[in-house]
Amino acid sequence: MDLQTDYFRAEDEAAVRKVMASGTRPAAEAFESVRARGIDPTVVLPRLVAALREESDAAQAPVQTPDLAPAPTPGPAPVKDGPDRSVWPTGLEPWHQEGPGAAVDFEDPWMTGPWVVELPDETRDALAGIQRKRLPRLTSQWARTEEVKNVERIELMKLIHQLGVLARRAKQDGQHLYCALTA
């Protein structure tokens, strides 16, 4: 399945649910968004955040002098494996342990989408810290990820920059980041 992924910012999940429930337009059109085809929020985006944290840690490494022992440097902070919670569709997932236990309805919105997940604010804040001068090195690090190996470097760099701008605006406005996934 080839998923279309759109990252967007919104005030809260109530605003997202209102747009999704209306069905008049996709969340990516209702909110400021970045289209990121195939950059899913559970595997690929956390790898970008890990690369960003490694880059940030390297930039903050202490300067070593010959007469001083090198100070220990902490490793990159752990990255959460994907989003905190699902925002859309609402209700109990058909595979949930408290579900009805009946056969799966393949017309159920949980099976057909679209789906929207809220990203952790830690992810938003990490992306908001992207600095333009570090884009080439960050792009090189992320490009080693299997899922983006075949994407042109310039496209990856533009995407990283766009995600950083989106995250900065969300953070400045006290908003959260979301990802809409459409089959």
Explained architecture:
This protein is α+β, with helices and mostly antiparallel strands and 183 residues long. It is built from seven helices and five strands; from the N terminus they run E-H-H-E-H-E-H-E-H-H-H-E. It has a five-stranded antiparallel β-sheet, with helices on both faces. The termini are close together. The model is unreliable at 61-83 (pLDDT under 50).
List the helices and strands and how they pair.
Blueprint: E1 4-10, H1 13-22, H2 27-30, E2 33-35, H3 44-59, E3 85-88, H4 109-112, E4 115-118, H5 121-128, H6 135-143, H7 153-172, E5 176-182
Antiparallel strand pairs: 1-2, 1-5, 3-4, 4-5
Helix pairs in contact: 3-6, 5-7, 6-7
What is the overall number of helices? 7
Class by alpha and beta content: alpha+beta
Low-confidence stretches: 61-83
Q: What's the β-strand tally?
A: 5
Termini Cα gap: 7 Å
Choose one word for the global shape.
globular
pLDDT averaged residue by residue: 81
Helix proportion: 25-40%
Briefly say what this structure is:
The chain is 39% helix and 14% strand. By secondary structure, it is an alpha+beta fold.
List key phrases describing it.
183 residues; 5 strands; single chain; 7 helices; 5-stranded antiparallel β-sheet; globular
